[in-house]
Amino acid sequence: MQRRTFMAAAAALCALASGAGHAETPAYRAEYRLSTTLGTAFPWGQAGERWIELVKEKTQGRINIKLYSGNSLVGGDQTREFTAIRQGVIDMSIGSTINWSPQVKELNLFSLPFLMPDYKALDALTQGEVGRDLFAVLEQRDVVPLAWGENGFREMSNSKRPIASPADMKGMKFRVVGSPLYNETFTALGANPTQMSWADAQPALASGAVDGQENPLSVFVGAKLPTVGQKHLTLWHYVADPLIFVVNKQVWNSWTAADREAVRQAALQAGRENVDKARKGIAGTDNTVLKQIEAAGVGVTRLSPEQRAVFVQATRPVYDKWSKSIGAGLVQKAEAAIAKR
Ligand code: X2X
Question: How far apart are alpha carbons 223 and 281 in whole angstroms?
Fold first, then answer.
């Protein structure tokens, strides 16, 4: 009896030793691929660099990551990024909610026109129950969401004239991003929107094929849009796109628990730093970025509450229609969180 117990225990120990050996030394790849849309001239690309650096440090070099900005792993087509992460073409990403919304309809929440009046409203969503709900949606799609970052509030610029009312946008050609919601918003305002990738947008603006665009001020400045004739800027705060740090689920599962935690902590830290950087010179009392923009000869239009209300009213049917596809429950939860902020 004693002898049998001993033998069984010895066998179990052997199995454990070989099994544990595998668990502790999974096959790590020499390099993992991290996708972003914007490069290191922008807070977004810098967040990628920072995540890479922090992961390397926290895993003592066990996880090495290379940055592929410009969505180069999907030929520059940012609307294909989410699918590529699921398929394992991309291992990790810091992606905009807008770019993933064609596949994850709930992410259109942040693109509902005039849902979020200010940064507190944006934070109430990403840092609260709505943010957790959205992470749960992503978890069901073979990606592991780790942290929030920020592209920012998207302001409107054009080469033709100042815009203070939808009437000023009549017939104007706007480049919009890859969610049909944007086409509908700009159409409701009387403009002529055309959807294209960011890679195509810059030459289109430079050649005058399109008159205007909408992007956060950090992008307006980083991409030097005043040098391609974008001389009129309207601060209307109509939508904001947060960024989300994710890892492909299979890749995630191939790492040890300790390394996963290191990657998560690195994402949370890089995310916090990214939000601060994205708001620098734009939010609160620090308006150095706006001063820089005005110094470059750009006319800045700030909407009065009455002027803003006209835009809100004109886009309300789009808001109502898209609330249904996003999920009425989620939209109501978001509205309640914003009202309470
Ligand atoms: O394409 C854009 O406008 C950009 C860079 O802001 C996004 O990727 C959503």
Answer: 16
Query: Is ligand 1 within 6 A of the CB of residue 98?
Result: yes
Angle at 224 between CA 230 and CA 310, to 5 degrees: 40
Contact 322, 181 (CB under 8 A): yes
The count of other CB atoms within 10 Å of the CB of residue 306 is 7
Instruction: Say which residue the tokens 């668990």 belong to.
Output: 23
Residue 216 alpha carbon, nearest atom of ligand 1 = 6
CB 36 within 8 A of CB 93: yes
* CA proximity to 299, closest of 235, 207, 239: 235
Nearest to 314 by CA among 228, 188, 170: 188
Distance 215 CA to ligand 1 centre (A): 7
User: Tell me, what's the pLDDT at 9?
Assistant: 52
Q: Which CATH class is domain 30-339?
A: alpha beta
Q: What is the pLDDT of residue 26?
A: 60
DSSP state at residue 225? G
Q: What is the mean pLDDT of residues 87-97?
A: 98
The alpha carbons of the chain give a radius of gyration, in whole angstroms, of: 23
Q: Which atom of ligand 1 is nearest to the CA of 96?
A: 9
Q: What is the DSSP secondary structure assignment for residue 227, as one 8-state letter? A: G
* 40 membership: H or E segment, kind and range: none
151 lines ligand 1 (CB under 6 A): yes
Give the residue whose CA is nearest to atom 2 of ligand 1: 198
Within 10 angstroms of residue 91's Cβ, the number of other Cβ atoms is: 24
**Residue 291, pLDDT above cutoff 50:** yes
